[in-house]
Design goal:
CATH topology: Globin-like
Order of helices and strands: HHHHHH
Number of helices: 6
Radius of gyration: 14 Å
Largest sheet: none
Bound molecules: protoporphyrin IX containing FE
Amino acid sequence: MSEAAELVANSLELVAERIGDPAPQVFARLFAEFPDAEERFARDVTGAVRGEMLAMVFGVLMDPDGPYQANLVKTERVNHDGFGTPSHEFDRFFDIVRDTCREALGVEWTDAFDAAWTRQIATVLAVTK
Ligand code: HEM
């Protein structure tokens, strides 16, 4: 694992310790930014689809150069465009997840975490377009 990937993993462990599953906060932030998106999750009564979406983001941020991860995200990018989430909105989700983690950790969020997330997100975007 690269140093940046390890830092992302460390920050996620801390988030889990502090707030447990960050999904509710992540999706609250998503729906605040894209209110139209909320009704598109109406069929996801159990939260399983939301969980899958978040798990894919964590997976690719921790291994952006893995060919498997990049291909999955590439496929989702195309699928999402088909159901009403254009590429530039799709990309925003990575920032939304980072911002949620930053807020959850407060003073425990370090410059090193910030730099690692920024770097990993840039890599993901570069390898999945
Ligand atoms: C603003 C950004 C995004 C919006 C509004 C959005 C919206 C959605 C919606 C509405 C669904 C449910 C589709 C259904 O009816 O089954 C969904 C599913 C999913 N999303 Fe996203 N999404 C976003 C970004 C992302 C990103 C960045 C990833 C991964 C890198 C991702 C991965 C997934 C996966 C894995 C599923 C479940 C499987 C599938 O239905 O394809 N999404 N997303």
